[in-house]
Amino acid sequence: MKFVTDGMLGKLTRWLRLSGYDVVYIGNLSVPEKDQDEVLLDLARREKRVLLTRDLSLYRSARKAGIKTVPIKTGDVTSQLVEISKKLGHRIKIDPENSRCTACNGVLRSVNREAVVGLVPDSVLKSGKKFWRCSKCGKIYWEGKHWKTIIETISRYNELREQTC
Ligand SMILES: [Zn+2]
Fold this sequence. Notes:
alpha/beta, 2 domains, Rossmann fold, binds zinc ion, single chain, three-stranded antiparallel beta sheet
């Protein structure tokens, strides 16, 4: 499942990418504000992406056009993941092995320690076991920070989902 997100969902976008989803974020494209709704609808239609939006009128236009869409009502990322999974009727699959770059949606490729010398702090170089590099923008990720936050979010999401479904 692929997504496209409106300008109010930057944080959710980063989380979905970390979770392994392909997400186009309107905030990453240089689109004038007045054209954004049209571009969002067009991307959803052409690339078969589910449109996530906090804008109710955009949600309605998408519904009218037969585009799969989820209206996001809450502000907290974990609750937003629950909203999406309930609306789509299945669990949002969080797969850190397939994480995408939070900045640009590029695919992360695993790289060895030698490849990141000089690109990460020395302490990270010493303690890190696994490293990834974004195939598009070159941003480096490593196991420590990357995984800890994912694991925390997964458990909060699972707890919340159990409670509300
Ligand atoms: Zn990137």
